[in-house]
Write a structure and sequence with these properties.
The complex is a heterodimer of chains A (282) and B (405). Chain A has 282 residues and is α+β, with helices and mostly antiparallel strands. Helix content of chain A is 26%, strand content 34%. Chain B is built from 13 helices and eleven strands. Chain B: It holds the Pfam family Propep_M14.
Chain lengths: 282, 405
């Protein structure tokens, strides 16, 4: 029976030319019956030993597809995010990866994305290209989403914008959220704005070996401006999952409803080995 | 009583005066034993002086005789200090729960609060819970493990740890909730009762107490232990890269400044060695569950190699059952699989070591969320997280109990 299965697989491989499941010769088939029966089942949740650099159809639950999908989240936020609109990766439905000559790897993904404030979800199709070689560019993304991106937040944005423009004092805050995960309701738009601004950085910094999230806003200070823009200086902590490092970035961010979020200046701060912060009482 | 305002006097009463002629009063301050609280720089600036009771009358007479204006600010400082202290004491008293029923599981707690909780739980359930100290942290804090047992000797056991990475606060908070859940459900929930009638449960809630203290008092994002590294100004070792499984290989760092620094050698950290020694001497551990956050995953070995574990199929299917049960409560979606496939390559990890010791049901959780709040999960999500995770734990523990090996 086992032999038959091996032969069948071999034949299939021969016909199609590129197997969608790569079998690495050096992996010991310790428990042959179990391993082979797994490989024959083609269900989404099955555990298959994947090649180091997965090619072909990807398991959507494994990290290669997940990391590429996270990049799509960052990209969507840079285009559409605002103090009242923040997108988060919800789910990866399917993924595919292929090498592009010597220049890099291209991922094709079907994902679901959620807008966190309105709590609406929608599906997106995306392509992510990671370049390889000497010139390390930031990933290139193309995405097409359903209705999701047409969420209307004009009223909230205008109200917030007007409120800050009229305000004689400049806003500032620290630790959003605080140690206990709390954010004052008034400060939430600034936290959302930070998420969106961070997305520019996270997008730029992403590779196939990283997964970024914004960990915390250490502080934010509103700056006076002559122009229509609102301007903020942020100190943001990013969390990179693979290295588990906390990376500090100083950002100068501008925003107004018609123009959206822009990062005017960005500066990566040195690793803080003993970053002291005052105790947080809440 | 901590009274920073009172200097060396053991008085019952103090009186306060403001004088308009500071220099004159100064000349006599030694004789009168005056204590200047706020010194005036010129003749028009008032001066605050504290006067001990035994020179009170002489001072008053002195000031009166020279027509110096004064007013009494605080007639009895001591009374004021007493009242303030009483208020602080009562606030502190209210903040300290008197029983584990009064403990607020929906809040993040300090290390001391969790230590107190552990002692209270044992005191309230002496026939079910005992506290074992399996070692000391680098800075000398006790490594406490709660043992839930209905009797027997070295029964087959289940180990659960939370908080090995100190910044993952939802895990220690959930561990506290699990402890209470166990004592609440024993004798009421048939499934848990069945487990405890045959097996013991060991629960280490604050597996990295030095780190946990540091996250409260210095750096909320601290992950590692707090042991200094010779020759480096960077502190700490990643306790989940310090185990003797693939130690030294890819998936951990040799740089003390790194968050995934493996340490100078396997089991160099007392927080890790204590568990190693405990597990080895116990010799009858059947399941080992190490809880982290965040990412919403249920993982089984290996992290250090792509070679699948011998029990891959069983562990995979059990994980699927567990996360299905988890999702049944609030719809929270978890991914599952081996560490190396699902999240990243990691060497020197806890459950790789425990699996290689023969503890088949070795699992790691990554609790809520998937990055929106990350490590700083809002406190109002603690109890929902703990409740849904408990369902997954019950699936793992029930299977372990029903499948002795």
């Amino acid at each position: 029976m086992r032999l038959k299965i091996i032969i069948v697989l071999t034949i299939l491989t021969g016909i199609t030319g590129s197997p969608s499941i790569t079998i690495r010769p050096e992996v010991e088939l310790v428990d042959n019956k179990q391993r082979i029966s797994e490989q024959n089942l083609v269900t989404e949740t099955d555990e298959v030993v994947e090649d180091v650099m997965a090619t072909g159809e990807l398991n959507p639950n494994h990290y290669p597809a997940q990391r590429a999908a996270k990049v799509v989240q960052h990209y969507i936020n840079t285009l559409y995010g605002s103090p009242f609109k923040v997108f988060h990766l919800h789910r990866v439905h399917s993924g595919n990866a292929e090498d592009v000559a010597d220049s890099g790897r291209k991922y094709q993904l079907e994902i679901s994305v959620q807008e966190m404030i309105s709590n609406t979800s929608g599906k997106c199709s995306a392509e992510v290209f990671f370049s390889r070689g000497d010139k390390q560019h930031s990933p290139q993304v193309q995405v097409m989403c359903e209705e999701l991106l047409k969420i209307n937040t004009t009223k909230e944005e205008d109200a917030f914008y007007q409120h800050l423009k009229k305000n004689t004092s400049l806003l500032s805050a620290e630790y959003l959220p605080d140690s206990h995960g709390h954010i004052e309701p008034d400060m939430k738009p600034l936290w959302h704005l930070a998420s969106v601004a961070s997305s520019f950085i996270m997008l730029n910094e992403s590779t196939q070996d990283t997964l970024f999230n914004m960990a915390q806003v250490a502080n934010v200070t509103q700056l006076a401006t002559e122009s229509d823009q609102l301007k903020f200086e942020y100190l943001i902590l990013l969390h990179e999952m693979v290295s588990q490092e906390i990376i500090r970035w100083k950002l100068l961010v501008s925003w107004c409803p018609p123009e959206g979020v822009k990062v005017l200046q960005m500066e990566k701060l040195p690793h803080c080995h003993e970053c002291e912060k005052p105790p947080n009482t809440n | 009583m901590n009274q920073p305002l009172v200097f060396g006097f053991n008085m019952i009463q103090y009186y306060f005066f403001i004088s308009r002629k500071p220099t004159m009063v100064l000349n006599h301050c030694l004789a009168f034993q005056l204590d200047f609280w706020m010194e005036g720089s010129d003749v028009s600036t008032p001066v605050d002086v504290r006067v001990p009771v035994h020179t009170l009358q002489p001072v008053k007479r002195y000031l009166d005789s020279r027509n110096l204006q004064y007013s009494i600010m605080i007639e009895d400082l001591q009374v004021m200090l007493d009242e303030e202290q009483e208020e602080m004491d009562s606030v502190a008293r209210d903040a300290e729960p008197r029983s584990t029923d009064a403990f607020d599981y929906g809040r993040y707690h300090t290390l001391n609060e969790i230590y107190s909780f552990q002692d209270m739980l044992v005191a309230e359930n002496p026939n079910l819970v005992s506290k074992m100290v399996i070692g000391q942290s680098y800075q000398g804090r006790p490594l406490n493990v709660l043992k839930f047992s209905t009797g027997g000797t070295k029964r087959p056991a289940i180990w659960i740890d939370t908080g090995i990475h100190s910044r993952e606060w939802v895990t220690q908070a959930s561990g506290t909730w699990f402890a209470k859940k166990i004592v609440s459900d024993y004798g009421r929930d048939p499934a848990l009762t069945a487990i405890l009638n045959r097996m013991d449960i060991f629960l280490e809630i604050v597996t990295n107490p030095d780190g946990y203290y540091y996250t409260h008092n210095s750096n909320r994002m601290w992950r590692k232990t707090r042991k200094p590294n010779p020759g480096s100004n960077c502190v700490g070792v990643d306790p989940n890269r310090n185990w003797d499984a693939g130690f030294g290989g890819a998936g951990a760092s040799g740089n003390p400044c790194s968050e995934t620094y493996r340490g100078p050698r396997a089991h160099s950290e007392s927080e890790v060695k204590s568990i190693v020694d405990f597990v080895k001497s116990h010799g009858n551990m059947k399941a080992f569950i190490s809880i982290h956050s965040y990412s919403q995953m249920l993982l089984y070995p290996y992290g250090y190699t792509r070679t699948p574990v011998k029990d891959q199929t069983e562990l995979h299917n059990l994980a699927k059952k567990a996360i299905t049960d988890l999702a049944s409560l609030y719809g929270t979606r978890y991914r599952y699989g081996s560490i190396i496939n699902t999240i990243y390559q990691a060497s020197g990890g806890t459950i790789d070591w425990t699996y290689n010791q023969g503890i088949k049901y070795s699992y790691t959780f990554e609790l809520r969320d998937t990055g929106r709040y990350g490590f700083i999960l809002p406190a109002n999500q603690i109890i929902p997280t703990a409740k849904e995770t408990w369902l997954a734990l019950m699936a793992l523990m029930t299977h372990t109990n029903n499948n002795p090996y």
